[in-house]
Amino acid sequence: MANLLLTEKCVRACSYCFAKEYLKESKENVLSWENLIYVADLFEASNERHISLLGGEPTLHPDFVDFVLYLFERKLKVNVFTSGIMANKILETARKNLLNIPFENLSFTCNYNHPDTSTSNETKQINKFLQSFSKSITLGFNLYQPNFELKYLVDAILKYDLRKHIRLGLAQPIPG
Questions:
Q1: pLDDT digit string (tens) for 79-121?
Q2: Which among 3, 86, 124, 144 is least buried, having the fewest CB atoms inside 10 angstroms?
Q3: Contact, 119 vs 47, CB < 8 A?
Q4: At what angle do helices 120-132 and 88-98 cross, to 10 degrees?
Q5: β-sheet bridge partners, residue 108
Q6: Model confidence at 33, in pLDDT bands (50, 70, 90)?
């Protein structure tokens, strides 16, 4: 499965982010349609059917929903790595256009930090996303300290009827 970076822009400033120094200096580049089509053509020629969309925050790409629809039309299975934090307009457009795509073909991995580390507005946006795409969402969490309380992940899975999986990532300490 290939990872495709849609944008370098992000809505979070996670302390463990491996790319935070790079993203600070980023010119906010976004993937072009020309490059997306090139990648889809390459996948078709190689018989690869799975692709992951990431960023920064991939939903910040101005053509995010259209990109997903295009990849779906090309018969690719898409997984989106997201924080779940998106503007209401983006969420509504995604719901309108993506909600009927089967979760076997479109899934989300939502990096779900502890709610105490999010603002109330971020929490509201994440909750709307979790409610909207529940069956298509796997929660993700990055281990970046020695001790964690992860019960809130199970609570969210049960509350929003999410997929019964948790993706754990391991983040190395960032020097300095």
A1: 999 999 999 999 999 999 999 999 999 999 999 988 888 889 9
A2: 3
A3: no
A4: 10
A5: 80, 137
A6: very high
Q: How far is CA 30 from the centre of its chain?
A: 15
Domain of 160 in residue numbering reads as 2-170
Between CA 43 and CA 50 the distance in angstroms is 9
Main-chain phi, psi angles of 13, to 5 degrees: -135, 60
CATH, residue 154: 3.20.20.70
Predicted pLDDT at 11:
83
Give the burial string for 122-159 (b: 16+ CB within 10 Å, else e): beebbebbbebbbebbbbbbbebeeeeeeebbeebbee
Examine residue 95 and state whether it is found in any structural domain, yes or no: yes
Number of domains making up the chain: 1
